[in-house]
Amino acid sequence: MTDVNALNIYTDGSSYSKPRRGGIGIRFVFPESMNKEELDFDLDGYKGATNNQMELKACIEALRKVSNSSELHQVSRIIIHTDSLYVVDNFKRAIYNWSKNKWEKSTGAPVLNADLWKELIKNVRTVRKRVEIEWVKGHSANEHNKIVDKLAKASAKNPTKRLTGLVDVRRKHSNKSVKIGSVNMRGQKISIRIITSEYLRIQQTWKYKYEVISRKSIFYKNVDIIYYKEVLRVGHGYLVRFNKNSNYPQISKVFREIEKPQPNGGEK
Predict the structure, then answer these.
(1) How far apart are CA 78 and CA 94, in angstroms?
(2) 13 carries an active-site annotation
(3) Would you say residue 2 lies in a domain?
(4) Which of 62, 86, 136, 141 is deepest in the core (most CB within 10 A)?
(5) What CATH number does the domain containing 226 carry?
(6) Are 85 and 101 in contact (CB under 8 A)?
(7) From 13, 45, 237, 265, active-site residue
(8) Is 168 a catalytic residue?
(9) Which residue segment(s) compose the domain that 156 sits in?
(10) pTM of whole model > 0.70?
(11) What is the pLDDT of residues 92-102, one digit of tens each?
(12) Which is the catalytic residue, given 12, 115, 119, 211?
């Protein structure tokens, strides 16, 4: 619900595939005392962005615009309304836990999108106002939520920007979709093919999406996420050993590269 005594900011993020691109939507609803109409922002989108990244980026850009406003002194409280449970559920965790734990979870696994969470917290502190984040049901009867949804979709149609950190992608051979935790970490020796690679700058590790190409494995063709400190090439296969911690799946050792892994799971 809109608080008539606060600056209410409605945000939304959107993402499309083939090619992957995302957009953000922002609307300001000013306190009644300011007697101002709503302000919408037409913003360019981002190449290669996910939905969660765009939800975070919408909040970041909204607070940046607030901090640059000459009318900021007239605002005592800021409420960001978002339909992203990802943002709502993790906002306080990012401030009070992750930021003090080197952007690692309690399991030791890296916090994803840490660079964006870090930027969001920085912007919260920059405005020097009380900032709250509240959930609003997506695609509801809320007029402001509908507007930012349209703005975000329009933004995604004009992706002129790119977030820091590049994701290198190759087409997967498996007909399965990625499913986090679909491969149990048992310390097993296994053959995998790297589908995507992303360097997590803050935690100084690599995040890989991979498919299992060991035909005798019960996880054959499963697609999952793994972490490793060294560089592996996308589109290439490797014989590796996994760790035994499914809460933080990692490659513990790479034995050798597999020459030209085939779509049917064989090797050449």
Answers:
(1) 18
(2) yes
(3) no
(4) 62
(5) 2.40.50
(6) no
(7) 13
(8) no
(9) 7-162
(10) yes
(11) 999 999 999 99
(12) 12
